[in-house]
């Protein structure tokens, strides 16, 4: 095996190991949110306020002021435009999240229609109990509630 093959193989192994560890450690290191905030989606929860809903913390303002060398006459206009921009970003993310849920439900429905003749009604019911997009989200919220209960 030549050196390029070894390097490529090492890269692939490291990439896969990093991806696997990120997948398995994600829930261990991600912050816990309430089920209500999970359902509301980005920019709509009380746990993490949207930029347009609450004043930007002074520490963040100071960071931008320092890094951009903002003059006094630039500070208010900059943060006004930045807040409006971030609100637009959260609005787009919220809409995409709604579309994503609808798409996943439709794709699952199409899948069930395709396997309807292969599986029995009981098997389809069992499949839906753990693979339907709504049941997956429900179990995710239950795990989060369980984790939050252990932390308290």
TrEMBL record:
Biased composition (Basic residues): 142-152
Region described as Disordered: spans on this chain: 129-152
Name of the protein: Periplasmic heavy metal sensor
């Amino acid at each position: 095996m030549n050196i390029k093959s070894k390097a490529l193989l090492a890269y692939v192994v490291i990439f896969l190991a990093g991806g696997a560890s990120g997948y398995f450690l994600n829930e261990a290191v991600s912050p816990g949110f309430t089920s209500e905030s999970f359902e509301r989606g980005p920019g709509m929860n009380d746990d993490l306020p949207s930029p347009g809903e609450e004043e930007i913390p002074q520490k963040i303002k100071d960071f931008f002021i320092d890094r951009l060398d903002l003059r006094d006459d630039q500070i208010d206009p900059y943060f006004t435009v930045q807040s409006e921009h971030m609100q637009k970003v959260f609005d787009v993310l919220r809409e995409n999240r709604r579309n994503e849920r609808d798409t996943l439900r439709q794709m699952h429905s199409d899948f069930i229609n395709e396997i309807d003749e292969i599986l029995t009604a009981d098997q389809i019911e069992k499949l839906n109990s753990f693979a339907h997009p709504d049941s997956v989200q429900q179990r995710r919220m239950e795990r989060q509630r369980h984790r939050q209960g252990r932390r308290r």
